[in-house]
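Per your request, structure below.
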């Protein structure tokens, strides 16, 4: 099989929507027939709780990293790459040794953030941190902001954040992951988005699916833009 792609979700701020984004991304990857391993590097192990409900397809696996010092995260990523098409690492809400090793072993870093000045401040810290690790490793690791838990209509704060980011070199997904009951329900029922109707009568699954597809397309576009801006150096 081709080399697996490793995506790390990180931000030093808790509550930014990392786990919801990780589950949503995994939902779409497995729906398309790919194999994905999620590495749960959060002390609260939310992905393990999601997985333990027993409602996930066989091409999705969750592995828990039990060592907060980061000593095992690299080995877990390498093992997951041998059996999966994609590896998604969900780090805890802090910059620590484990986050450092996870970022350093990744091909792409996704930085989730809600549309608030505080989330933006921490998200920019995560981007800067990724750039430091990239420089130390002498390779380009793209870092992309992904807005989460967004309303369907941009409000004043979101527009101010857009203005703040406009003149920076920070890449961001141009589609926001919307605040939808269907995304919240994935963690409740322990399933992927396309299987949600089997377990719940929550509506709006089709709209959530379309939003998720657009988010992944936006991430792909930002990734390609980041590579091009760095002279095509492979991530």
């Amino acid at each position: 099989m081709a080399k697996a792609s490793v995506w790390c979700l990180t931000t030093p701020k808790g509550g930014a929507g990392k786990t919801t984004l990780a589950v949503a991304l995994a939902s779409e990857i497995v729906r398309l027939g790919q194999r994905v391993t999620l590495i749960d590097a959060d002390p609260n192990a939310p992905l393990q709780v999601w997985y333990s409900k027993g409602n996930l397809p066989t091409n999705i696996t969750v592995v828990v990293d039990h060592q907060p010092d980061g000593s095992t995260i690299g080995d877990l990523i390498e093992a997951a790459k041998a059996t999966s098409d994609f590896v998604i690492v969900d780090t805890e809400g802090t910059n620590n040794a484990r986050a450092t090793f996870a970022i350093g072993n990744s091909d792409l870093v996704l930085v989730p953030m809600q549309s608030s000045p505080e989330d933006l401040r921490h998200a920019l810290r995560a981007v800067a941190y990724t750039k430091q690790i990239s420089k130390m490793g002498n390779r380009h690791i793209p870092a992309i902001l992904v807005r989460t838990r967004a309303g369907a209509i941009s409000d004043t704060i979101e527009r101010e954040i857009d203005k703040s980011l406009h003149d920076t070199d920070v890449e961001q997904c141009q589609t926001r992951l919307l605040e939808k009951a269907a995304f919240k329900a994935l963690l409740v029922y322990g399933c992927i988005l396309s299987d949600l109707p089997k377990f719940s009568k929550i509506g709006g699954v089709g709209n959530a699916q379309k939003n998720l597809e657009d988010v992944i397309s936006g991430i792909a576009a930002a990734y390609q833009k980041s590579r091009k801006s760095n002279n095509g150096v492979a991530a």
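The first strand starts at residue 5 and ends at 9.

Regards,
D.
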